[in-house]
Amino acid sequence: MSARRPQRHSAWVTLAIPLALAALTLAGLIAGLLGDGLYDAFAWIGLGVPLAVVARCWMRK
Amino acid sequence: MPRKAISTGSIRAWAFVHKWTSLVCTAFLLMLCVTGLPLIFHEEIDGWLHERPPLTALPEGTPLLSLDALLARALAAHPGEVPLYLSFDTDRPVVNVTTAPQPDSAGSAMHFLSLDRRTGEILPAPPAGGIMDLLLQLHTDMFLGLPGMLFLGAMGLLFALAIVSGVVLYVPFMARLPFGALRREKRARVRWVDTHNLLGITTLMWALVVGLTGTINTLAGPVTDYWKADRLAALSAPYAGERPARAETSVDGAVGLALAAAPGMRPQFVAFPGVAYSSNHHLAVFLQGATPRTEKLLTPVLIDARTGRLAAVAPMPWYMQALLLSQPLHFGDYGGLPMKLIWALLDLLTIVVLASGLYLWLAPAGRRNARRKGKAA
Q1: For chain B (length 377 residues), average pLDDT per consecutive 10?
Q2: Residues B347, B241: contact at Cβ < 8 Å?
Q3: Residues of chain B positioned with their CB less than 8 A from the CB of A22
Q4: Centroid of chain to Cα B92
Q5: What is the pLDDT, as a whole number, of residue B375?
Q6: For residue A3, is pLDDT > 70?
Q7: How far is CA B115 from CA B91, B124, B129, B154, B270, in A?
Q8: Distance between CA atoms of B216 and B150, rounded to whole angstroms?
Q9: C-alpha angle with apex B7: B4 to B12, nearest 5 degrees?
Q10: Positive or negative CA dihedral for B104, B108, B111, B112?
Q11: pLDDT in the model for residue B234
């Protein structure tokens, strides 16, 4: 195994974060439909976390 | 543990799907994202462009006029017309009446009046045909009516396919890279691939839901027609051969009967005989739930237009419920202003995904590869 070429990881490893974000988004979308107040707050979090993840990746050196 | 990598052949096939579904829909999706951005805030923008004049100040608990009296006033403003719809504002004592020469008149021939339920005063109408109306028209059907709408619905399906094929390609592409890798030291093409991948994969669920609910919304007309044929036609069978009814019965009576049949709900609108949301022989009183969880779902109660008797409580079938739920999920208007702001940011990110995808197709990537291949040979 050379240092230049990192090892392949499995599809599950590649997709772990994307699937978690997708699940969070879906939960947020549905929560907003179920009620107001706390439900809406959960919706903002569910939809906002993917945005925060993008911002973090962008700001990372 | 053995890791089964996706074969080169199937990567090629998925890349083909991703390339062509994206290429066909990108121009339209860009238009939808750009026009959709201001539409997210249409309520705020409308209120800001033309402020809604406040209602006359009257003491709390001022009695309301009957719906029949209000309807008579609206009809007097447009003599010879018939009522099509009567709807209730949720935040103020106002009803909105739509009238037209015939129940099946075109939208352009319809008149829309708002009336104060306490005084019967006809409220000044907001000006029509503003920039927001144009954007909405462009966004829904590109001024092409039903064919334009269905075409955009098909673009939504292609967009969904592009997302799914993009996720499949993401797996082998990212197999040696950590999540969120942005290789800034590399050439422009690599940087844009990384941006495209990061934004595409983080927004995938939102884009999929907004895209597919958009497609469902383009089917609203045909699905409503189907519902009418499927559920309302049976209720009209006893009237076979009779001329379409005019509403002779009291609207107040109809709404009262409907509320008695479905306690705990509130009326959202009344559809008069012959319109898209009723049969030729009934008044359809559409009730909505009174809680946030149930307010999106409607239950029509049908009242015989001649006798005023309760004909049926006709809960919406699954496909109409799906249609009703697709609206908020597409518009993003069900979680207050913070949700709208998030919707707008996700929309902007989707624009970047589309534009970077287009760039990657146009950018001279093949040339470099070709040169490399040439050297190897």
Answers
A1: 68 96 97 98 88 84 93 94 94 94 89 94 82 94 95 98 97 94 92 96 98 97 92 84 80 96 93 92 93 86 93 92 95 96 98 96 66 44
A2: no
A3: 204-205
A4: 24
A5: 44
A6: no
A7: 14, 9, 21, 40, 15
A8: 10
A9: 145
A10: positive
A11: 84
What confidence score (pLDDT) does residue B154 get?
98
- B322-345 b/e with 16+ CB inside 10 Å = b? ebebbebbbbbbbbeeebbbbbbb
For B153, phi then psi, to 5°, come to -60, -40
B84 closest CA partner among B301, B277, B307, B305: B277
Reading the block at residue A32, the tokens are 């907003």
Which residues lie below 8 Å from residue B170, measured CB to CB, with a gap of 6+?
A14, A15, A18, B197, B200, B201
A-interface mutation test, from B179, B343, B356, most A Cβ less than 10 A away: B179
In one-letter notation, the amino acid at residue B255 is V
What are the tokens at B311?
A: 């004909």
Query: Sign of dihedral through CA atoms A33, A37, A40, A46?
Result: negative
Contact B202 A53 (CB under 8 A): yes
ipTM of the complex: 0.93
Judged by CB atoms closer than 8 Å, whether chains meet at A54 and B202 is answered as yes
Mark which residues 2-61 of A lie under 8 Å from B by CB: 5-11, 14-18, 21-23, 25-26, 29, 32-36, 39-40, 43-44, 47-48, 50-51, 53-54, 56-58, 60
